Amino acid sequence: MEENEKLQIKNTFLNAQMQKFVSLEIENMRLRRLLDASKKLTDRVLTAELLSVDLDPFSHEVLVNKGVRHKVYKGQPILDADGVYGQVVHITPLTSSVMLITDPSHALPVQVNRNGLRMIAQGTGSIDLLKLLHVPNNSDIEIDDVLVTSGLGSVFPVGYPVAKVSKVQRNSGQPFATVEAIPLASLDKSREVLLVWKGSSVVASNEDSSNITEQEAK
User: pTM of this prediction?
Assistant: First the structure.
């Protein structure tokens, strides 16, 4: 009985270790996806980790662990491994607040990747839904069309994936259609994000590191 009790304690310890290894493996997979995404970008990028999430249901904001000391600036675009995540709205020396693209007060110039049709994607307050503003009824837009940043507004670089069209309802007698889209970024799941500097507007120092390194993905 004494030996059995010792084995049970050891088994409990090993199971706890295994759970930690599984968590580390999942984290490693996330970092590798982020690494792959960063290699596709021509702009300077830097990884940041989420520290907290705003619990206010009417405000979609998160806090990340990069700030003024890392040359983060207000309005800076943020991406995750799948698409546009949000932009910086407040900065401290070591942290930054990021408004998600689904926040009701956030609007983003986008275009249909298939034909270049331009429009504005606005947050709805729902973590998995954007609405497209003032889309004429006769516009060439279809369900499953991919929306990318248009580059207008001088905030987000052109060509980054934003969302996929999920609803197109042409309203008879009305000038505009009802169009909705699902964000491509994992807004409620991502733990790591990419801060993006457009072109060479900010010169990276060796200390900051302009890209994710292989070491960060291990």
Answer: 0.74
